[in-house]
Amino acid sequence: MASSLICSETQSRVSSVLNRDVKQYGKKYMFDCNEETCWNSDQGDCQWVSLEFPQSVKVSELKVQFQGGFSSKTCRLHGCPKDGAFTQICDLYPEDDNSLQIFPIQEAPAVDKVKIMFENSADFFGRIIVYSLEILGEKPHDHFFKASRERRGGSCVKCSMVWRHLGNMSAVLPPHELM
């Protein structure tokens, strides 16, 4: 089941903040669950938000709430492993309104970082305003992930998932996919 992937250990970065006023418009306000606060970018062609997770994740859904008139007409979701280069996962086409918009992400690879590129702003100056941003998906169970890294394979009694080292990549697989 998908759950929020953003936690206190997730590191976030943004392309800009309006007038560099992070106290009033900083990135933290996208994640504070407060309807009165937001991240407000400065002007520019392409604004972005990047998130680095404490462990590999598989993104299955993106939720975003813009300020109408300051939304992005096109968003590109990119992802990468810890030391890899970003590759495009999908394109998203938000509406220019104030509603919470939900985008399912199909067949995303496991990544350690994501970057959301906000292209074609509805605002003439290229500003983006985001009241809420949430990334949902799955991550390996912490107890299982740590044990598996040490021995390159094994199974988890609690969730019946199996960790396998497959050449230069690793995967957590349900037992039926191993046969």
CATH topology of the largest domain: Jelly Rolls
Termini, distance in Å?
23 Å
Number of domains: 2
The radius of gyration is: 18 Å
Main β sheet profile: 9 strands, antiparallel
What is the helix/strand order?
EEHEEEEEEEHEEE
CATH architecture type of the largest domain = Sandwich
For the record, what CATH class of the largest domain applies? Answer: Mainly Beta
Query: If helices are DSSP runs of H or I spanning 4 or more residues, what is the number of helices?
Result: 2
Q: For this entry, what is the oligomeric state of its chains? A: single chain
| Whole-number mean pLDDT | 85
Residue stretches low in confidence (pLDDT < 50, at least 5 long) are 142-171, 173-179
Number of strands: 12
Main structural class: mainly beta
Shape: globular
- CATH superfamily (homologous) name of the largest domain: Galactose-binding domain-like
State the share of residues found in helices, binned by percent.
Answer: under 10%
Q: How much β-strand is present in the residues? A: over 45%
Verbal overview:
Strands 1, 2, 3, 4, 5, 6, 7, 8 and 9 form a 9-stranded antiparallel sheet that branches. Strands 10-11-12 form a 3-stranded antiparallel sheet, with helices on one face. The chain has helices spanning 22-25, 142-151, and strands at residues 3-4, 11-14, 39-40, 47-66, 72-80, 87-92, 100-104, 110-121, 129-138, 153-155, 162-166, 169-173. The protein contains 2 helices and 12 strands. The protein has 2 domains: 3-138, Galactose-binding domain-like (Jelly Rolls), CATH 2.60.120; 142-177, no CATH class. It starts with a strand and ends in a 6-residue tail after the last strand. With 179 residues, it is mainly β. Mean pLDDT is 85; it is low at 142-171 and 173-179. Keywords: Nucleus. This is Nuclear receptor 2C2-associated protein.
